[in-house]
Design goal:
This protein has one domain: NAD(P)-binding Rossmann-like Domain (Rossmann fold, 3-Layer(aba) Sandwich). It has 6 helices and 7 strands, in the order βαβαβαβαβαβαβ. The chain has helices at residues 17-28, 40-52, 67-81, 104-132, 153-173, 208-219; strands spanning 8-12, 32-37, 57-61, 86-89, 135-140, 178-185, 229-232. Helix 1 (17-28) packs across helix 6 (208-219), helix 3 (67-81) runs parallel beside helix 4 (104-132) and helix 4 packs parallel to helix 5 (153-173).
Length: 243
């Protein structure tokens, strides 16, 4: 028996990378899955992989920054499964550059996906979880929420905001049995990093499975326990005072 048998988990940004890895880990523990991502092709591939492994999967193309698409996502979840136990807000975007050269379009895109998206999904999840009597929300943040780098204003600001949203959600959810925690990954060897030439690609990396294991740990804690914040990074990665 898995620790999540009978549970339903919704993962955004589930078509590849960390989201797909977390979905795989949750399925291993017995959870039924709702997968959301913008790319139809990647979403189909993830759904096919997980279904082949024995998981029950509902895949719905979704732009988490679009309020109606998010509402449709949660409506479809309830129509299929009639409950929601776990929400993983993982969908993310990155654009950067010097502050004085950033466009409003780039800023708005990153904030929309990384912060507005989790807000919209959290709002819909709470509307299900509070009457249901409980649930768990896991936000995938970043060590950039605490240690910023140059030329990362939209991304770092969005992850700082996500940590704030996590705390408010945990506070507002606790009287209803709803927990919320934030998982901050360090460098993860996702698709966009493979074969790259940027200096960051030479830094120590961990695998998707490593960060997925941490997310599954958070998801399988007893319902009266919340891991409010976790930082998981490769042992050799620069972090404290990295600048």
């Amino acid at each position: 028996m898995g620790k999540l048998d009978g549970k339903v988990a919704l993962v955004t940004g589930a078509g590849r990378g960390i989201g797909r890895g977390i979905a795989r880990g949750l399925a291993t523990e017995g959870a039924s899955l709702v997968l959301a991502a913008r790319s139809d092709q990647q979403l189909r591939a993830a759904a096919e992989e997980l279904t082949a492994s024995g998981a029950t999967v509902l895949a719905i193309p979704t732009d988490v920054a679009d309020e109606k698409r998010v509402q449709d996502l949660f409506r479809a979840t309830m129509e299929r499964f009639h409950r929601l136990d776990i929400l993983v807000n993982n969908a993310g975007a990155f654009e950067g550059g010097p502050l004085d050269e950033l466009t409003l379009e780039a800023w708005s895109h990153v904030i929309g996906v990384n912060l507005t998206g989790p807000f919209l999904c959290t709002r819909e999840a709470l509307r299900i979880m509070k009457p249901q009597g409980g649930g768990r929300i896991i936000n995938i943040g970043s060590i950039s929420a605490q240690r910023v780098r140059l030329n990362s204003a939209p991304y770092s600001s969005s992850k700082h905001g996500l940590w704030g949203l996590t705390q408010v959600t945990a506070l507002e959810g606790r009287d209803y049995g709803v927990t919320c925690g934030c998982l901050h990954p360090g460098n993860v060897r996702v698709e966009r990093r493979r074969g790259g030439t940027r200096s960051s690609d030479e830094e120590p990396m961990m695998e998707v499975e490593d960060i997925a294991q941490a997310a599954v740990l958070m998801a399988t804690l007893p319902p009266n326990v919340n891991m409010l914040e976790a930082i998981v990074l490769p042992m050799g990665q620069l972090y404290v005072g990295r600048g």
